[in-house]
Amino acid sequence: MSTLSVFDLLAMHPLVADLPAGWLHRLAPHARPVHLVTGHRLFHEDGPADRFWLVHSGAVALDLHVPGRGDVVIDRLGAGAMVGWSWLLAPHRWRFGAVVAEDVRALELDAARVRAVLAADIDLGRQLDARFLAVAADRLQAARHRLVELYACPGGA
Question: Domain of life, per the record (predicted)?
């Protein structure tokens, strides 16, 4: 991954790969390639949501602190995922925690700068907001399925 430019890495990520090159060039200055090792905590629940990641390889576990049980993993995100969307909405605080479950190679993006780019280009903002909303909707649907499996009655009653 290190021999590729940030632009190339953006162009390879499923979330933004089909965007026009001009838009990717606007996002590229606000991203940097990162290699994160297993066990590295990306963020804690209620911490400042000041960046997000486009994962190229590896896995990230999303967790939620449960009193008396500690941090409970609620989802696992892999290659092609976007980690973090709390940066999109004020007060820009993480709603979950996240820890690297398998070494990750990703692009880390500066949230404040990306928000400024999106505010300055309404069409790009609209396009990315729709994609971010689709990510959130997919994760909500996956959470619903996990809840149904968790609370399904034995024997299919």
Answer: Bacteria
